[in-house]
Protein backbone atom coordinates (compact mmCIF):
# COMPACT_ATOMS: atom_id res chain seq x y z
CA UNK A 1 0.00 0.00 0.00
CA UNK A 2 1.24 3.47 -0.86
CA UNK A 3 2.28 5.34 2.24
CA UNK A 4 1.81 9.11 2.00
CA UNK A 5 -0.08 11.46 -0.29
CA UNK A 6 -1.04 15.12 -0.35
CA UNK A 7 -4.58 16.12 -1.32
CA UNK A 8 -4.48 19.08 -3.69
CA UNK A 9 -7.42 21.22 -4.71
CA UNK A 10 -7.35 24.83 -5.79
CA UNK A 11 -3.97 26.46 -6.41
CA UNK A 12 -1.97 23.62 -4.87
CA UNK A 13 -2.60 21.43 -7.93
CA UNK A 14 -0.37 23.57 -10.17
CA UNK A 15 1.78 25.27 -7.56
CA UNK A 16 3.20 22.65 -5.21
CA UNK A 17 6.45 24.43 -4.46
CA UNK A 18 9.89 23.03 -5.28
CA UNK A 19 10.16 20.91 -2.12
CA UNK A 20 7.03 18.85 -2.74
CA UNK A 21 7.55 18.79 -6.51
CA UNK A 22 10.93 17.12 -6.01
CA UNK A 23 9.53 14.14 -4.07
CA UNK A 24 6.37 13.28 -6.04
CA UNK A 25 6.28 9.68 -7.23
CA UNK A 26 3.05 9.98 -9.22
CA UNK A 27 -0.39 11.59 -9.15
CA UNK A 28 -3.82 10.10 -8.58
CA UNK A 29 -6.49 12.08 -10.42
CA UNK A 30 -10.25 11.68 -10.56
CA UNK A 31 -10.84 12.00 -6.81
CA UNK A 32 -13.00 14.37 -4.79
CA UNK A 33 -12.46 16.10 -1.51
CA UNK A 34 -14.15 14.13 1.30
CA UNK A 35 -15.16 17.47 2.79
CA UNK A 36 -17.02 20.41 1.29
CA UNK A 37 -15.13 23.52 0.20
CA UNK A 38 -16.18 27.03 -0.75
CA UNK A 39 -14.68 30.43 -1.58
CA UNK A 40 -14.91 31.35 2.08
CA UNK A 41 -11.52 32.76 3.04
CA UNK A 42 -10.02 36.14 2.17
CA UNK A 43 -6.28 35.55 1.80
CA UNK A 44 -3.92 38.31 2.86
CA UNK A 45 -1.21 36.69 0.71
CA UNK A 46 -3.44 37.18 -2.33
CA UNK A 47 -4.46 40.77 -1.75
CA UNK A 48 -7.57 39.74 0.13
CA UNK A 49 -8.79 37.45 -2.67
CA UNK A 50 -11.36 34.75 -1.92
CA UNK A 51 -9.79 31.28 -1.71
CA UNK A 52 -11.15 27.77 -1.33
CA UNK A 53 -11.19 26.30 2.17
CA UNK A 54 -13.04 23.45 3.90
CA UNK A 55 -16.44 24.52 5.25
CA UNK A 56 -18.96 22.92 7.57
CA UNK A 57 -21.98 24.59 5.98
CA UNK A 58 -22.63 25.12 2.28
CA UNK A 59 -19.93 24.42 -0.26
CA UNK A 60 -19.45 21.27 -2.30
CA UNK A 61 -17.17 18.26 -2.68
CA UNK A 62 -14.84 19.25 -5.51
CA UNK A 63 -12.36 17.67 -7.88
CA UNK A 64 -8.94 17.04 -6.41
CA UNK A 65 -5.61 15.35 -7.11
CA UNK A 66 -3.59 13.23 -4.70
CA UNK A 67 0.15 13.78 -5.00
CA UNK A 68 1.77 10.46 -4.07
CA UNK A 69 5.13 11.00 -2.39
CA UNK A 70 8.24 8.87 -2.75
CA UNK A 71 8.56 6.12 -0.16
CA UNK A 72 11.53 7.65 1.65
CA UNK A 73 9.52 10.74 2.69
CA UNK A 74 8.37 10.50 6.33
CA UNK A 75 5.04 11.80 7.58
CA UNK A 76 6.75 14.59 9.53
CA UNK A 77 8.79 15.66 6.49
CA UNK A 78 5.65 15.70 4.37
CA UNK A 79 3.81 17.83 6.93
CA UNK A 80 6.74 20.24 7.14
CA UNK A 81 6.92 20.65 3.36
CA UNK A 82 3.18 21.18 2.98
CA UNK A 83 3.07 23.67 5.86
CA UNK A 84 6.04 25.62 4.49
CA UNK A 85 4.39 25.76 1.07
CA UNK A 86 1.12 27.06 2.56
CA UNK A 87 2.92 29.70 4.66
CA UNK A 88 5.30 30.88 1.89
CA UNK A 89 8.37 29.51 3.66
CA UNK A 90 9.51 26.92 1.09
CA UNK A 91 13.12 25.75 1.56
CA UNK A 92 13.38 27.25 5.04
CA UNK A 93 14.34 25.12 8.03
CA UNK A 94 11.07 25.76 9.85
CA UNK A 95 8.89 22.84 10.93
CA UNK A 96 5.18 22.34 11.34
CA UNK A 97 3.92 22.29 14.91
CA UNK A 98 0.44 20.98 15.61
CA UNK A 99 -1.81 23.41 17.47
CA UNK A 100 -4.55 21.87 19.65
CA UNK A 101 -6.38 25.21 19.65
CA UNK A 102 -5.80 26.78 16.23
CA UNK A 103 -6.55 30.46 15.77
CA UNK A 104 -8.38 32.02 12.81
CA UNK A 105 -5.16 32.27 10.78
CA UNK A 106 -3.48 29.02 11.84
CA UNK A 107 -2.54 26.70 8.97
CA UNK A 108 -3.34 23.17 10.11
CA UNK A 109 -2.17 19.99 8.41
CA UNK A 110 -4.76 17.24 8.81
CA UNK A 111 -4.76 13.54 7.95
CA UNK A 112 -7.08 11.22 6.07
CA UNK A 113 -6.46 7.55 6.81
CA UNK A 114 -6.84 4.79 4.21
CA UNK A 115 -8.06 7.25 1.58
CA UNK A 116 -8.18 5.84 -1.97
CA UNK A 117 -5.81 3.05 -0.98
CA UNK A 118 -3.25 5.41 0.51
CA UNK A 119 -2.25 4.93 4.13
CA UNK A 120 -2.15 8.65 5.04
CA UNK A 121 -3.26 11.59 2.90
CA UNK A 122 -2.45 15.07 4.18
CA UNK A 123 -4.42 18.21 3.47
CA UNK A 124 -4.39 21.84 4.54
CA UNK A 125 -7.14 23.29 6.68
CA UNK A 126 -7.54 26.93 7.65
CA UNK A 127 -10.65 28.57 9.03
CA UNK A 128 -13.07 30.52 6.81
CA UNK A 129 -13.07 34.25 7.52
CA UNK A 130 -15.74 35.54 5.11
CA UNK A 131 -19.02 35.66 6.98
CA UNK A 132 -21.89 34.44 4.82
CA UNK A 133 -20.08 34.68 1.46
CA UNK A 134 -22.25 35.98 -1.37
CA UNK A 135 -21.37 36.36 -5.06
CA UNK A 136 -21.40 40.15 -4.69
CA UNK A 137 -19.08 40.09 -1.68
CA UNK A 138 -16.68 37.62 -3.33
CA UNK A 139 -16.59 39.64 -6.55
CA UNK A 140 -15.72 42.82 -4.69
CA UNK A 141 -12.85 41.09 -2.87
CA UNK A 142 -11.55 39.55 -6.09
CA UNK A 143 -11.70 42.84 -7.99
CA UNK A 144 -9.96 44.74 -5.19
CA UNK A 145 -7.22 42.09 -5.01
CA UNK A 146 -6.09 42.76 -8.59
CA UNK A 147 -4.66 46.14 -7.61
CA UNK A 148 -2.96 44.69 -4.53
CA UNK A 149 -0.93 41.95 -6.23
CA UNK A 150 1.81 41.91 -8.84
CA UNK A 151 0.52 41.25 -12.34
CA UNK A 152 3.02 38.56 -13.33
CA UNK A 153 2.47 36.46 -10.23
CA UNK A 154 -1.26 35.95 -10.92
CA UNK A 155 -2.08 35.81 -7.21
CA UNK A 156 -5.27 37.88 -7.43
CA UNK A 157 -8.76 36.50 -6.97
CA UNK A 158 -9.77 36.58 -10.63
CA UNK A 159 -6.77 34.52 -11.70
CA UNK A 160 -7.49 32.17 -8.80
CA UNK A 161 -11.07 31.70 -10.02
CA UNK A 162 -9.94 31.16 -13.62
CA UNK A 163 -7.49 28.51 -12.46
CA UNK A 164 -10.08 26.73 -10.30
CA UNK A 165 -12.55 26.61 -13.19
CA UNK A 166 -9.88 25.27 -15.55
CA UNK A 167 -9.48 22.29 -13.19
CA UNK A 168 -13.21 21.62 -13.15
CA UNK A 169 -13.50 22.87 -9.57
CA UNK A 170 -16.90 24.41 -8.98
CA UNK A 171 -18.89 25.23 -5.88
CA UNK A 172 -22.48 26.44 -5.39
CA UNK A 173 -21.24 30.04 -5.62
CA UNK A 174 -18.89 29.71 -8.59
CA UNK A 175 -21.22 30.65 -11.45
CA UNK A 176 -22.87 33.63 -9.77
CA UNK A 177 -19.48 34.74 -8.43
CA UNK A 178 -18.11 34.84 -11.98
CA UNK A 179 -21.18 36.64 -13.30
CA UNK A 180 -20.93 39.25 -10.56
CA UNK A 181 -17.28 39.96 -11.44
CA UNK A 182 -18.29 40.51 -15.07
CA UNK A 183 -21.22 42.67 -14.03
CA UNK A 184 -19.15 44.87 -11.72
CA UNK A 185 -16.38 45.33 -14.31
CA UNK A 186 -18.55 45.58 -17.41
CA UNK A 187 -16.66 42.66 -18.96
CA UNK A 188 -17.81 39.70 -21.03
CA UNK A 189 -15.27 37.29 -19.54
CA UNK A 190 -13.00 36.93 -16.52
CA UNK A 191 -9.99 37.49 -18.78
CA UNK A 192 -11.48 40.76 -20.05
CA UNK A 193 -12.19 41.80 -16.48
CA UNK A 194 -8.51 41.33 -15.66
CA UNK A 195 -7.45 43.43 -18.61
CA UNK A 196 -9.77 46.23 -17.56
CA UNK A 197 -8.48 46.21 -14.00
CA UNK A 198 -4.75 45.82 -14.59
CA UNK A 199 -2.63 48.85 -15.51
CA UNK A 200 -1.25 48.74 -19.03
Radius of gyration: 17 Å
Q: Give average pLDDT, whole number.
A: 94
What proportion strand?
25-35%
Largest sheet: 5 strands, mixed
Distance between the termini: 52 Å
Order of helices and strands: EHEEEEHEEHHHH
Q: Identify low-pLDDT runs.
A: none
- Net shape: globular
Number of domains: 1
Tell me the structural class: alpha+beta
The count of β-strands is 7
Helix content: 25-40%
In spatial order, strands of the major sheet run: 2-5-1-7-6
- Count of DSSP helices? 6
Features:
200 residues; five-stranded mixed beta sheet; two-stranded antiparallel ribbon; alpha+beta; single chain
How would you sum up this structure, described in words?
The protein is of the alpha+beta class and 200 residues long. The protein has one domain. The chain has six helices and seven strands. The protein has helices at 18-21, 75-86, 135-146, 157-166, 174-185, 190-197; strands at 2-8, 24-32, 37-43, 49-54, 63-69, 108-115, 118-125. The strands form two sheets. Strands 2-5-1-7-6 form a five-stranded mixed sheet. Strands 3-4 form a two-stranded antiparallel ribbon. Strand 6 and strand 7 form a beta hairpin. Helix 3 (135-146) crosses helix 5 (174-185). 36% of the residues are buried.
